[in-house]
Write a structure and sequence with these properties.
8-stranded mixed β-sheet, about 30% helix, alpha/beta, 9 helices, about 270 residues, 6-stranded mixed β-sheet
């Protein structure tokens, strides 16, 4: 029987309105109160996760930055945290050029977006082309990403990055609700699965007692390696291929909750 339930956000429990439904929040909170360990695992930064989940009160832990950091939801304190060095950030920023749409450099609370046109600029997203400003202000970098103007260039830049910056774990990412692909870079050894395994070991939970839900490319490893991996109805084909099960409903229709109620024999 599963003891830990791990849910991705975008394309999994986050709807098109970028909110978690009240039905999902209520049910996960009931499971949490009954003794299950509820974990959010996402590529988003910590402050963004709190925003779209209304402070994640239904969860025990948050895995952010595609596995670079794990936080306790009681007080927001880090359980585990990996940081990218400033020298590595400098090397990554050199890839900002005419074929690059933007580069994101992230810490716990802010996304520093290197882009040559003003998009969203607020408390969470800081837009600039001044790389020194990014290096001076983003002191504890948890992950970075790069978006190309053409999807066809992603594989080429990916190959260059893994050769040029081996101290990073670099992946190609795509969510199920978009054709856009981009590159994400984390500290070496970081992934959603590695963070889940580390947290499960910390809590003395067997990885076989972990059920996970996801839809995108960065969910493949955790769905394949955890005890029970579930792909959303809307998940990418690559994700469904490795899943133990597929939900009957999508992320806009409480697919995770509908599956859990059946899987847990609707006892909560």
């Amino acid at each position: 029987m599963s003891k830990m339930i791990v849910v991705d956000l975008d394309g999994t429990i986050l709807t098109d309105k970028e909110r978690v439904s009240e039905t999902t929040k209520k049910y996960l909170k009931q499971l949490k109160d009954s003794g299950y360990v509820i974990v959010i695992a996402t590529g988003r930064i910590y402050s963004s996760i709190l925003d779209v989940t209304d402070d994640a009160e239904f969860a025990n832990y948050i895995i952010s930055d595609t596995g670079a950091c794990t936080y306790n939801t009681i007080d927001g304190s880090p359980v585990f945290q990996s940081i990218i060095s400033k020298e590595t950030v400098k090397k990554f920023l050199k890839y900002y050029g005419e074929d690059c749409y933007f580069i994101d450099v992230c810490d716990k609370n802010t996304i520093y977006k290197c882009i040559d046109k003003l998009e969203c600029n607020n408390d969470v997203i800081k837009v600039t082309t001044n790389q020194d400003y990014i290096l001076d202000n983003c002191t504890e970098v948890t992950h970075m990403s790069i978006s190309m103007k053409n999807n066809d260039l992603v594989r080429e830049i990916y190959s260059k990055l893994i050769s040029d910056i081996p101290e990073l774990d670099i992946i190609i990412m795509q969510d199920s609700f978009s054709n856009r692909r981009w590159i994400e870079a984390m500290p070496q050894g970081c992934s959603k699965y590695s963070a889940i395994k580390r947290l499960a070991d910390y809590l003395n939970i067997s990885i076989e007692d972990v059920i996970v839900f996801g839809d995108g490319l960065n969910d493949i490893e955790m769905i394949e390696k955890c005890g029970h991996g579930v792909a959303l109805k809307n998940a990418l084909p690559e994700v469904k291929k490795v899943a133990d099960a597929i939900t009957t409903e999508d992320y806009n229709h409480d697919g995770v909750i509908r599956y859990l109620k059946q899987y847990l024999n609707d006892s909560y």
